[in-house]
Amino acid sequence: MLTSRETVLRIERAGVAAWPAPETADLDGWLWRYAGGGSQRANSVSPLDFTAKDVDAAIDEAERRYRARGARPMFQVCEVNAPAHLDDLLVQRGYRLQEPCTTLAKAIAPAEAPADVEIEPSASEAWLSVYLAGVTESRRQAAPGILARVPHPRAFFLQRRNGQPMSAALGVVAHGVVMAECVATRAEFRRQGGSARVMTALEAWGAREGATIAALQAVAANAPAQALYAKLDYAKVGGYHYRVLDA
Predict the structure, then answer these.
(1) Is the overall model pTM greater than 0.70, yes or no?
(2) CA 74/CA 59 separation, integer angstroms
(3) Are 183 and 166 in contact (CB under 8 A)?
(4) If DSSP states are collapsed to H, E and C, what string results for 127-162?
(5) Nearest-CA neighbor of 145 among 1, 33, 31, 13?
(6) Distance separating alpha carbons of residues 101 and 219, to the nearest angstrom
(7) Is 22 a member of any domain?
(8) 194 assigned to some structural domain
(9) CA quadruple 88, 222, 193, 160: dihedral sign
(10) What SS3 class is residue 71?
(11) 14 within some domain
């Protein structure tokens, strides 16, 4: 089952692998990440594993590292954290809730990719023109460093309309899961099926690379994205949110 703890943990691990931060550290099994701005994921602690007993000491160390870089301490909290009561501890320490997201997934099998979707091993200028058009300035600055570190197997998908870049996505395979990242369509081409085409190509490519699950993580409040993925037969298997300490 896609909702089993083991499967959800595989998907969450794949999500961590698919979007690597430029700077990381092992904090007793937790992955401390820092990118200097932009992506929340790349500037938060991923607490999927914990090998020590003193949780407060590990939180203290994470906070020290972020403050040394002038950044707010942040954790990416999901249902399969270690330890399970981490969210309660962060609330007690004054961390506030930020941007709940859903983890969506579906089973995939080998299939033919749409012939008109371009698949490349690196991000072209055309691909970047789609992705960067829809993100904040801080994400634009951080994106090149993160994209350069995305591990293989990976592929960049691009759909054009009348020769113009229309829709884009990034696929990364890890732990038997193909993660869909950076799914975007330029504003002037929305509601024309471009995102569905690149997602279909991404799933077919992922299956060829050995993935049996396709997954993605979307902001819970993003109704258009949630509706798109529901039409593509993605179902919620989990979720996460960020905890941020402002003080």
Answers:
(1) yes
(2) 10
(3) no
(4) HHHHHHHHCCHHHHHHHHHHHCCCCCCEEEEEEEEC
(5) 33
(6) 4
(7) yes
(8) yes
(9) negative
(10) coil
(11) yes
Q: Which amino acid is at 193?
A: G
Each residue's pLDDT tens digit, 76-130 = 999 999 999 999 999 999 999 999 999 999 999 999 999 999 999 999 999 999 9
CA 211, distance to chain mean position in Å, is: 17
Residues 18 and 82 in one domain: yes
Distance of alpha carbon 35 from alpha carbon 43, whole angstroms: 6
Q: Calculate mean pLDDT across residues 40-55.
A: 97
The strand pairing partners of 239, in sequence order, are: 102
Task: Indicate the length of the chain as a whole number.
Answer: 247
Structural domain that includes position 218: 106-239
Q: Are residues 190 and 92 in the same domain?
A: no
User: Which amino acid does the sequence have at 210?
Assistant: G
Contact 124, 85 (CB under 8 A): no
